[in-house]
Amino acid sequence: MGNVTPIGAPRPRVLEFFAGIGLAKMGLEQAGFSVAWANDYEEDKKAMYVAEHGDNHPFALGDVANVTVDQLPRDAALAWASSPCTDLSLAGNRAGFAGAQSGTFWQFIRLMDDLKDDRPEVVVLENVVGLATSHGGDDLTAAIRAFNKLGYSVDVLALDARRWLPQSRPRLFLVGAQNPPEDCPDPNSELRPDWLQSFFGDPTLDTHRAALPAPPIPKTDGLDEVVEPMKPGDARWWDAERTKKFVSSLSKVQAERIAELKRGDSATYRTAYRRTRNGVAVWEVRADAVSGCLRTARGGSSKQAVVKLGGPGKKLQVRWMTPKEYAALMGAPDYDLSGARTNQALFGFGDAVAVPAVKWLGENYLLPLLRGELGVRTSTVEDALGEAVSNG
Ligand SMILES: C[S@@+](CC[C@H](N)C(=O)[O-])C[C@H]1O[C@@H](n2cnc3c(N)ncnc32)[C@H](O)[C@@H]1O
C-alpha cells in the first residue's frame, strides 16, 4: 500500500466523465478520492453503476455534448475522463475551441474551459495506447496541446493492468497538472517507454515527468485464481461437438501446447480468442496464464473463452468467460452483478478501466500531486511555452 488517506482527512472531489460502470470511481475512492458527479450516456451502464455504488452523488445520464457547466460541482480537485477508445481522432478537431466540436474528448475540454477559475487542479485522460501513434502522433499532440491551453502541464504514462491482474490491458494515462512537479527526465522508463519520448521532447508542448515509484512487475500467470469454479457437468461447458471443432481449429503449435497441459495431474486454465486466419475463423489459446484484453461484446468475436486443461480425467473443456470472471479480471471481484444481464455486464466491463491501475495512479501520483508532495516546478506553463501560449 502506498499513501493512505488519514481517517478524517478531506477526500478531494472528482468529476467523473465517461463513467461507464464506475471502475474509475472504484479505484479513485480506494485511493482516497470522493466522486462528486458523473456522466455517461448509456442507461445500462448507469444501472450497473448505481447498483454497485448507490446514488449518493448526481449521475447525469445523457450525451456529454448536452452537459453544461452549471451542472458541475465547482469544488472538484480532479476531473477524470475515460473517453471512448474509438474516439481516437482527436486531431480532427484541431480547428480549435471555436470550431464545431463533435468528438467526446472535445466536449470534456469545452467543459473544463467553461469552468474557468473553478477548473480542477488536476485532470486525467485515460485511453488506449494506440492514441500515441494515431495519425502519426498528431492526436496525442492535439490532446496535450488542448490541456496546455487550459493551463495544464501534461505527463503521459503507459500502465498495463497486468501489473496487478492476470489480464493484458495496456492503457495510456495523461495527467494534466496546474502545479506540476519538476521534470525528471530519467525516472520510470517502464512507465514512459521510448515511443512516448518524442512528446516530452517536443518544445511546443508543456510536459513534465514526475518521479514515481516503480509499479509491480507484469504478471505471467494468475488466471487460475480468478476462474469461477464450475462442476465438470455444468451446462455452460461446451458440448463434445463444439469442443471438437474448437480443438480442430487450433494450429499445430497450439494443439501441442494444450495437449501437454491436458496431461497435467492438476487442472490449469488458459484463455482463448477467435481470430480469422486466411479467411477462416480459428481459435487461439494464449501461451501464458493471463487473459487477453477484455473488450466490449459487440459482434461476439471479441468474447473470450476459458479452457480447462488436465486434472482428474485429464480432460479439456471449453466455455465462454463469465461476467464474474470479467469483474475479477478488472479488479472488481465483488462487483454487484445481481441485476445485470450477461451481455450488459460483459459490455460494461469490456469498456472499463482496471481498478488497481487507477488506484495505483491515485495513491502514487494524483493525491501526492494535490498535496504538493511531489514538489512544484518553479516555471509556469507560459514560461515553458513562451510566446506559443501568450499569443494563443
Ligand atoms: C472507455 S469507456 C469508460 C468506462 C469507465 N471508465 C468505466 O470504468 O466503466 C467510455 C464510456 O464513454 C461513454 N460515452 C461514449 N460516448 C459518450 C457521449 N457522447 N456522452 C457520454 N458518454 C459517452 C460510453 O458509454 C462508455 O461507457
From TrEMBL:
Keywords: Methyltransferase, Restriction system, S-adenosyl-L-methionine, Transferase
A GO BP entry: methylation
Keyword field contains Methyltransferase: yes
Broad EC category: transferase
Keyword Nucleus found: no
Top-level taxon: Bacteria
A Gene Ontology molecular function term of the record: methyltransferase activity
InterPro entries tied to this protein: C5-MTase (IPR050750), C5_MeTfrase (IPR001525), SAM-dependent_MTases_sf (IPR029063)
Record-linked Gene3D superfamilies: Vaccinia Virus protein VP39 (3.40.50.150)
Catalytic residue list: C85
Enzyme Commission number(s) from the entry: 2.1.1.37
Pfam families: DNA_methylase
Protein family: Belongs to the class I-like SAM-binding methyltransferase superfamily. C5-methyltransferase family.
PANTHER family with a match to the protein in the record: TRNA (CYTOSINE(38)-C(5))-METHYLTRANSFERASE (PTHR46098:SF1)
Name the UniProt record assigns to this protein: DNA (cytosine-5-)-methyltransferase
Organism of this sequence: Gordonia cholesterolivorans
Classification of source organism: Bacteria, Bacillati, Actinomycetota, Actinomycetes, Mycobacteriales
